[in-house]
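ok here's YigZ family protein, seq below lol
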Amino acid sequence: MTSVIARDGVHEVEIKRSRFRCTVARVGDAEAAAAVIARVRKAGPGANHHCTAMRIGDPETGEMTVRSNDDGEPSGTAGVPMLEVLARRDLTDVVAVVSRWFGGTKLGAGGLVRAYSGALAETLDAVGTLRRVRHRELLLAVPHDLAGRLEHDLRNSPYRLLGIDYGADVTLTVAVTEDSREAFGAWLAERSGGAVEALDAGPRDLYLP
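and the structure came out like this:
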């Protein structure tokens, strides 16, 4: 199970008169991450460095985009430590940019590693995280005379009712985890007397506390 940031955010720290402003954003692909980086660069043209790290994709399948950039800082002192913070927290679909305004005092390699990773860690603490949990989205075509009772039962069940659409039938959209699909099938058969079947609409990620 992986996590995502709960919200986008900006946080700034000062270390030996250098300012480190960290921006984090949830993104769905590398193009969106590049747009965030470009926006941060444009908003802070006076910064000496804009160091970046991103982790995007699904760690469970290995389909990941993982990149970092030191942007002129000594190699391995900025982007990679930032990336390690994201990895330790099992975060995905996130881009982080730490912009530095040099204050006149050199920090040394160790100091830079601590500064960049620390600025990002503090920002992540501030914005919070959510668990990204893979579900299956199921569509239930329910006769109108059963819909009210089944909706009530769903709202009082461990399964997640995502939406209701009224048409010739009432379509209930439900999310269940992979390991609860069989139990949900039995639950649905019992509650509907076998009159309602679930159509699998594919995977859906939910973001939970």
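fwiw Helices lie at 30-43, 79-88, 108-127, 144-155, 181-192. kinda neat tbh
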